[in-house]
Please model this.
Amino acid sequence: MSIKSNFIVIALSLLMLSACNTTFEEGRQNLANELQYRGTNPYIQAPVLKDLERRIRGVVTKPIVRGNPNGFDPRNLEILSNFQGRYDHQKMMTLIALSATGYDLAAQTLYAVIGSGDSCLIRAGDAIFPVPDKNSIYKTYNWEFVRGDCKNGSADGIAEARSRDGTARFTGRFYKGKMYEGVLEGTLDDGDKFINIGNVPSEGVIARLLTTIYRKSGYKYHRFGDINHDGKLDGFGIILRNYTNLLVVRSIGEWADNRKEGFGAWQDTREAYEAKVWNTWIGTWHKGKMHGLGAWTNAHENIQLGEYDNGKAHGLSFTQYSDMTGDYHAFGVGQRRYGKRHGPWQYNEANTFTSNYYVTEVYNNGNMVSTSDRPAFNMNQVMAFAIGAATLSVADVPSAAKLQVGAAFAQDTLGNGGGTNLAALKKVYTQHAKSNAKATHSGGATKSVKGGITVEQVVINCPHSGPHTIPVPFRDRVCRAAAIDFATTYVCNRQDQRRVIERCRRDCQQRQCLQE
Model:
């Protein structure tokens, strides 16, 4: 049994004995101290992964501080700092503060001067008012004019309106009878109130605004971001939970059709030692699930980052663990298959008495089947994948193809994958050729009808796996040689990724030799 297994058993026993004395904040502080003392994960080399590691480590170093429901604590401010260029933080906080004062004072603050017209026409049939409630995502109203500025018989300028059923009020800016921005107070089906402050979504208009729902319990829900005519987040958005003693970033980042799409972060509670603890995820998302590269931490014991597929860790995975007693620490690298460790995992372990102890554990679908003190792979292999990951992180390879090649290369390089990288690279090359030109077959090569792309069936001889045939796309002879060199490195898992990447850049003007 490795020192990891022994010390985890000891640590769990100590935690059970000292549950009354050990808090999660103490565990977070211990993990933060270990991050500072041990440094970054030595297995992580690719710049894109190092950047992700920096972001998730930043979350661990900041505590959750309860007691101020009107402002963010250090942990949530750290999460928000990853998105500084996507929104105006001060404006959002001003709108949240205004919403807390209630409709009347918020409207008076923003629109102090209102005209005296009393019989103007309102043309607001396509205006919608977002309310992310379980029963609906937006409301519409039949409005009647109260008072304000008029022009040519229509509301134009600053004016007030109310719904004919008495469930909503609006004060804001009109133009030719249409609502453009303002403050709205509405009533939910259960009788609770909500407020919108900002622009008004309408047909063809995506509006940035704040929505706040007020619950009788004192809990408040805030959503700030870009809302389309269907009442859905479509662009950048932030969802906040406002408890009576804490303001929490629930979700933040890019959205499409009300689902996370692109770079973002998410927080949720998870069970740990019979308590609920806030966990944080940062990375790329697709259709509401983490997909691509992502990182996770429970902020008191674990950091994990690597490849994700449809919401689950899948592919290369890096870990850093420190038990809450401070008696055991480990860096790890290996692969996961849809969330479960699979294949060889290598750990660099340390405890109170020993440091830099290496152990290898082999897993089958989450179950450990063997362990030894012999390395599963060397740093050259890990760095080879790291360079490959950096290559695959660029935008000119389709995301799904990048994920397939990345996971396959990790399997071949770190776990004797037996040619999965070959299959994945074939798929990428074939997809690239199809996207550039329709092709016809002629002899040993496939020549494009238009665009000048040629696809040649190249035989690659690998020392340990024999000959392989792969369709290599290229436009000219100089790039052909570079593309074959690149394919040979990936199919044979050679440790010279950096060299072939630079050759592709020089001879094909593209890092994977995929000429357009």
Q: What stands out?
A: The CA atoms of residues 79 and 439 lie 48 Å apart. The chain has eleven helices and 25 strands. The first strand starts at residue 129 and ends at 133. The mean pLDDT is 82.
